[in-house]
Every structure is written in structure tokens, then in C-alpha cells.
Amino acid sequence: MRREIPLIITAVVGIFFVLQYFIPHPPFNQLNGWFSDWFSIIGACAIWLGALNLIRISADKIYRRREDWGYAIIIIISFLLITIIGFWEGNAFRDSGTGFDWLYRFIYTPLSATMFALLAFFVASASYRAFRARNLEATLLLLAAFFVMLGRVPVGDALAGIFHVPESILPSSIATWIMNFINTAGQRAILIGIALGIVSTSLRIILGIERSYLGGE
Amino acid sequence: MQIFGLWVAAFFTLGIISFLYKDNPWYKVCESIFVGISAGYWFVTLFWDNIYSLFYLGVAERGNYSLYVGAVLGLMMLLRLIPQIGWISRWPLAFVVGATAGLYIINYFASNIMVQVENTLTPLFADAFNQPTFSASVYNSIGNIVVAVGTFTGLVYFFFSKEHKGFMGGMAKIGIWTIMITFGASFGYTVMSRMSLLIGRMDFIFGDWLQLIK
Questions:
Q1: pLDDT confidence of residue A213
Q2: What is the per-residue pLDDT for A216?
Q3: What would the pLDDT profile of A6-34 be if each residue is shown by its tens digit?
Q4: Alpha-carbon radius of gyration of chain B
Q5: Which end of chain B offers a freer environment for a tag, N or C, measured as fewer CB atoms within 10 Å?
């Protein structure tokens, strides 16, 4: 029963979501709205699970005095700080001038933006190691990346202008052509391949062939 | 408070950037705060948006009692925290997985297969189906051929049920060239987007904070 009921739920809900696309009339279109709402509520509860797990793991690290346990205290304090302020300020927590908004603007935003900006350096470092024109495929990858990067900044066309390069083969024109045509073709092939994979995996899940999401007994 | 906020933001920005030198306590403090603040941000946001506005107000003000089903499934999800009855959490998980699978079959088939195939099947030498043959410019005609050939050969490359030899191997070869150029273009595009973020952070440090850029 511990595995059968979830499999039945998956099959029924999955088949329903496929059917409702073809029957946009009551009760199917109404149930679709209900299911979407339930989906959102379950998602909100799942984040409780994640947050409680984060607290539990951090608290365990502090209790056992594991390496870098001091940083676990910072995790808990920062989590509690934004959570308490967010709950204290009520439904209007996002309004400009609230404590939550201050934390979002001056802590969350700079941290997340800088964290992603930092990737620029790692990508540059990785490309230095990976971008060696060992064969034709690697050379094509290197050239495409070079022209797209050069074509996206004004200095690319400015440099080409010094050598009186015709407009049709300016770095920006080559970058646009690559993005509009070759990139479109490659992305399309990848998208169609991914979609076929997702459709077949979804079918396997609905039919109960794929059960890994249930975990072990 | 605004000035203090700028100093706090600068402190965290420089703390994250300090990782470029090496892993250090300043970076670790910033990283830990990022983890805690991110988790708390989504915790609070989803509570007010989904549990309060959607569920509580939905039941109390709009009388939508069907939402109780979602709440019960959500509570069942939390039972994972109690090992003895943790298996019940599989029911809401099964609901989410089933709903996602059902939605993905239709959505991916419609948007990623049908639409992409439709957009690929365009006239090679005309601007549209109702236009005369050879109405497209040379630039667009070459582009249309590249898109059609590139998409088809790219798909051939992903087809592993037949060995890539002979004619099939030739097409797969063209396919991998297309895909390599795509990866290169995507890589270049990603690098530039990260650079844009980095420029934004530098602009904040030298403009908003230090006021060196006006």
C-alpha cells in the first residue's frame, strides 16, 4: 500500500492533466484551477520542509562542534532575522521602506548578483583551460564563442573599423548571423531532443514504469 | 538607513569578490548569510503568497473549500519529518510528480516539438509560403538552409539507434558541428551576461558607494 497508492495518485493526476488539455469544459477546466492551487500550497509547505531541514542540519553541526560550526550559527541567525521581520510586517512585507525590503535590497540582491558575477571569472578561467583548438569541433566552439563575445561589445566593431572591414563581416554582424541561424538550428535540435526525452519520461512516470521518485522502501 | 544600507551592500559585495583571492572567513560569513537570507526570503514569500493569500483568504473570504485538499496534501508533505509515518509524504509527492508529468507531456509536445518543427519547415528561398519562390534575400535563403540542415542533422546526431557510419555518419558529423557552434555561441552569450552583472557590481562599488563615477 505504501507504494501502490502513490502510483495510483500519480497515474490518475497525470492522466487527468493530459485529458484536461483536450476537454476545456467543466468540470475539467475547473479542476485544473483547483489542482494548480493545490500545487502552489504543497510547494509552500515543501519550503517549510526545506527550511526546517536547513535549521536541523545547522543546529546539528553546532551541537557536534563540526568544522566551521560558527558559520552554521550565522546561517540560523540570518534565516531567523529575515523570517521574523517578514512575519512581523504582515502581508505588506514587500512594500518599499519595510525591514524586509531593506534586507532584500541591501543584502539579498548584492549577495546574489555578486555571486553570479563571480562566475565570470570562473568561466574565463575554465575557458582558458578548455578552449584549445585541438580538433575541428573545438575550433568551431572557440570561434563561435569568440565572435559572439566580440560582437556583443562596441570595441569589437571599433577594432574591425580600424582595418576597414566590410559591414557585412563586422564582429557584430557575424555574431548576429551565428545567433539567428546556426544557434537557432542547434538550439532547436537540442530542444526537440529534450522534449522527446521529457515526454517519454513523463509517460513512464504516469504508467508506473519509472518509480525512482518514490525512493527505496 | 539608506547610507548604512549602501555600506552593508558594499561589505557583502566585496566579501564575495574576496573569494577571488582565496577562500577566507569574510567570504564564508557572506556565503552563510546568503544561504540563511535566501532560505528565509522564500520561506516568508511563499507563506504570504501561497498559504495566507491563496489558502487562508481563499477559504475565509472567497469560500473556496477545495483548497483544504491542498492544505491536507501540504501537511502530509511535512510528515516526512516524523520517520514512523514519513511514508505518507509520498502521496503529495506523487500528486506533484503526476501533475508535472501530465502537464509536461502536453506543454513540451506543443511548444518544444510541434512549434519548433513548424518553425523549421519554412520555405528555403521565399520569405513566406504565400510569397513567390526566390523572394527571399540571399542572406535569408542561406540562413533558412542552415537552420533546416542544422536542425535535421543535429537531430540525427542525437539518434543513437543506428550506428553513425556512412551517410548517417556524415549527417551526424554536420550535426555535431552545428551543436558545437551552438555551444560556443551559448558560452559566449553566458560570459557576456555574467560580465554585465560584474559591471553592475563594479558600477555599484565605484558609483553608488565610493561616488567615483558620476
A1: 83
A2: 61
A3: 999 999 999 988 988 888 888 777 877 88
A4: 27
A5: C
Compare CB distances from A117 to B5, B41, B198 and report the shortest one's residue. Answer: B198
B116-122: average pLDDT: 90
Determine, for residues A190 and B179 on separate chains, whether the beta-carbon distance falls below 8 Å: yes
Per-residue CA distances from A8 to A14, B91, B96, B101, B124 (Å)? 10, 10, 13, 14, 49
- What are the helix (H) ranges across A64-177? 69-88, 99-103, 109-130, 136-151, 154-162, 171-177
CB-CB contact of A147 with B140 (8 Å): no
What cell numbers appear for A198 in the block?
Answer: 521529457
Mean pLDDT of A157-175: 90
Give residue limits of the domains in chain A.
1-84, 89-129, 131-217
CB contact under 8 A, A91 and B48: yes
Residue B41 predicted with pLDDT over 60: yes
End-to-end C-alpha distance for chain B, whole angstroms: 22
| Torsion sign across C-alpha atoms B80, B86, B92, B98 | positive
According to the model, what pLDDT value does residue A123 have?
Answer: 81
**Residues A91, B90: Cα–Cα separation, whole Å:** 31
